Amino acid sequence: MIDLRRLHVLRAVAHYGTVTAAARALHFTPSAASQQIRQLARDLGVDLLEPQGRGVRLTPAAESLLAHADAIQARWEEAELDLRAEYSAPSGQLRVSGFQTAAALLLPPMAVRLAERHPRLTVRIRESGVPECFDLLFEGEIDLAVVEVTPHNPPPGDARFDQQPLLDDPYDLVVPDDHRLAGLARVDLAEAAREAWIAPVPDSPCRPHVMSACGAAGFTPDVIHHAKDWNVTAHLIAHRLGVALIPRLARLSPDLPITRVRCAGNPHRRILSATRSGCRTRPAVAAALEQLRELAATAEA
User: Fold this and answer.
1) Across the strands, what pairs with 34?
2) CA of 278: how far to CAs of 34, 131, 173, 244, in Å?
């Protein structure tokens, strides 16, 4: 009989990449986590970890086991749902997380709507970056996340998570009010190829979108300034220090002398809802997703 607790430790090693990181997430010592995996290997009669440089990597047997482990976890979530089927009304606590834009614009109205419709349901909101959202889902610390697509997300087919499109958030070219492009209804980004640019910081999930959009228009932007926050970017633009691509959902100060111009080719970032596999049909999660879809439809309109 496989000890599911030991199996979870192996899943954590695969998720975090090292025994040390997995142990930290599970509140184990590294030696205790390693012992759990060694005992699991003895129970199964196979090697699960093998040396790789100064660290370890999963063996083919471990990779095969993980595919089953992820399926077991999803079935366990479904079994728990079946056992509670008689309590079908959303109730209890729903823990949700999202990146900055989602935490500001989507999750608060979702929480208010849920409180009005389901008074026995309590929503807890946590702002988190995209990688942290997936870590929190994996650890069972949250039930639902709103994330943007980045090159570092788990692949769409990852059996641990159920990721579904929520909305596409277009990027607008933002320029000073008196800029030569400010009066256009729509602009080809190539028109801004010779401008000074303000871009997200290198580790921002939005930076690849900006660079890709400019690349698709045939140029590499001359990035003069970097910013983490969209309103910082907007203030730099207002002082005529450059132009930038900013998502339409990003709320900028209305007092700034800047203009949004829609872009030809519709560059955008894709926003997803994410749950653990098997959790999407839980009453509280399903109710939250219904409200998010309605809010997303309004945002896209």
Assistant:
1) none
2) 29, 20, 40, 40
Strands 258-263 and 161-176: antiparallel
Compute and round to an integer the Cα radius of gyration of the chain.
Answer: 23
- The one-letter code for the residue type at 155 is P
pTM: 0.76
Is 70 exceeded by the pLDDT of residue 114? yes
State pLDDT tens for residues 148-173.
998 889 998 888 999 999 999 999 99
Burial class (CB in 10 A: 0-12, 13-18, 19+), 290: middle
Residue whose tokens read 């945002």: 299
Our separate counts of H helices and E strands in the chain read 10, 12
The structure tokens listed for 45 are: 């009669």
pLDDT-wise least confident of 1-5, 162-166, 236-240, 294-298:
1-5
pLDDT of residue 74: 74
pLDDT of amino acid 40: 85
Question: What CA–CA distance (Å, rounded) separates 259 from 189?
Answer: 15
Q: How far is CA 255 from CA 22, 104, 115, 258, 299, in A?
A: 47, 20, 33, 9, 22
Tokens of 248: 């339409």
What are the E-state strand segments in 177-290? 186-187, 196-200, 222-227, 244-247, 258-263, 268-276
To the nearest whole number, what is the mean pLDDT of the chain? 90
CA distance 130 to 152: 9
Query: Comparing C-alpha atoms, which of 245, 46, 271 is closest to residue 150?
Result: 271
Please name the helix (run of DSSP H) or strand (run of DSSP E) that holds residue 219, with its range, or none: none
Cβ atoms of 249 and 198 within 8 Å: the answer is no
Using alpha carbons, select from 50, 55, 41, 45 the residue that is nearest to residue 6.
41
Residues 97/134, Cβ–Cβ less than 8 Å: no
Tokens matching residue 220: 């590499």
Beta bridge partners of 170: 268
Q: Answer whether 217's CB lies under 8 Å from 190's CB.
A: yes
